[in-house]
Design brief:
Blueprint lengths: L2 E4 L4 E4 L11 E11 L1 H6 L8 E2 L3 E9 L13 H5 L5 E4 L2 E2 L5 H4 L10 E2 L12 E5 L3 E3 L6 H4 L2 H13 L7 E5 L3 H11 L4 E6 L2 H17 L6 E5 L9 E6 L5 H7 L2 E9 L12 H5 L3 E4 L5 H9 L9 E6 L17 E5 L5
Parallel strand pairs: 11-12, 11-14, 12-13, 14-15, 15-16, 17-18
Antiparallel strand pairs: 1-2, 1-4, 3-5, 3-9, 3-18, 5-6, 6-10, 7-8
Helix pairs in contact: 5-6, 5-10, 6-7
Bound molecules: zinc ion (2 copies).
The site of one zinc ion has 9 residues, from helix 3.
Length: 349
């Protein structure tokens, strides 16, 4: 089959890879579209030490199901249940978990110690003709959503995770740092709560886009719009925000967040960039700041929001590229300023 393969040095388009065989309890999915995210670009620089097929944001059709054995298959996943997935258009949760370890037993399965992660850790990913995922990871896509929209479910779910972790309501004063693809999704998700929201960025066109999309998100929930998009340089440094979400992808984002969060406020980190910077954590202690790391989120909520048109993702697509032509996109600095780039996997050109 065809795929984008990272060998530890470079991302290459290959046509000589075997079609994967689904393990018991897994589905073989023919991929239709897939999205590139920052994690893929970081992996292509050597982050995570992953080698193999990249990609974890996707939509595809279930083509084959491997019969479940006793091991590792949830109860109730009978043969009949499994067969109902055949031919369905799906996306899938990326953490493939053991169901048996201590963390799985405690309901923390997305942190399973034995997990593999689609296109990120010990499991080939979605920039390929086919991928395999456990049936229990799959989510069906409603007919009226396009493939392009469905490819956003995974990152949108990650944005919704914030609402599970931090109480955000109408009177909450929230800031999102970063007007890139993740910041845009997070801003729309927070806008659905009707909170007083500020998006901070560097790009006039992206700030204008966010303004439009967040107005749509608040209107869909029939809450009043309390949204503003501002240039970083125009933002008054005032430590009066309840929640600051860092989506900058830069280490400086955390320091910026510290300069905006109120005492006993919360900083949510959506990217791993801050980990590499030398940090003075004294202000966190003195001002009793809560720091929340935030990763994968609820797919069902993301699908519902897309289906109800509360969140708009199509305007975030910068380009749509056939798989065979996509390898150069992973070179450093290949697509400056792009929001979401989608790969058209079925397109043979
Ligand atoms: Zn991602
Ligand atoms: Zn486990």
């Amino acid at each position: 089959m065809r795929a984008l393969h990272f060998d530890g040095t470079a991302v290459r388009f290959r046509t000589d890879l075997p079609t994967p065989a689904p393990a018991p309890g897994e589905a073989l999915i023919r991929v239709r579209a897939a999205g590139i995210c920052q994690t893929d670009l970081e992996i292509a620089k050597g982050y995570m030490g992953f080698t193999g097929i990249l990609g974890h944001e996707f939509v595809g059709i279930v083509e084959k199901i491997a019969p479940a054995s006793d091991a590792g298959v949830p109860t109730g996943a009978s043969a009949l249940n499994a067969a109902r997935w055949l031919g369905k258009r799906v996306t899938g949760e990326i953490n493939c978990v053991c169901g048996k370890c201590d963390l799985c037993a405690r309901g923390l399965s997305s942190h399973c110690t034995a997990r593999t992660v689609l296109g990120i850790q010990n499991r080939d990913g979605a920039f390929a003709d086919c991928l395999c995922l456990p049936l229990r990871n799959l989510h069906e896509i409603p007919d009226h959503l396009s493939d392009d929209e469905a490819a956003f479910v995974e990152p949108l779910a990650a944005a919704f995770q914030i609402l599970r972790q931090v109480p955000i309501e109408k009177r909450t004063r929230a800031v999102v740092l970063g007007d890139g693809r993740l910041g845009q999704l997070v801003a729309q998700v927070l806008a659905t709560t009707g909170c007083a929201l500020t998006l901070v960025g560097h790009h006039e066109s992206k700030l204008a886009l966010a303004e439009k999309l967040c107005a749509g998100a608040t209107a869909a929930r029939q809450t009043s719009a309390q949204f503003r998009a501002v240039f970083e340089r125009d933002l008054r440094a005032a430590r009066d925000h309840d929640v600051v979400v860092d989506c900058t992808g830069h280490a400086e984002g955390f320091l910026r967040a510290l300069s905006l969060v109120r005492p006993r406020g919360t900083i949510v980190l959506k990217t791993t960039a801050a980990a590499a910077a030398p940090l003075n954590l004294a202000p966190v202690v003195i001002d009793e700041i809560t720091i929340v790391g935030s990763r994968c989120g609820p797919f069902d909520q993301a699908i519902r929001a897309l289906a109800a048109r509360e969140v708009q993702v199509a305007p975030l697509i910068s380009r749509s590229v056939p798989l065979a032509q996509s390898a150069p996109l992973f070179a450093p600095g290949a697509a400056p300023g792009a929001l979401k780039i989608l790969l058209r996997i079925q397109d043979r050109t």
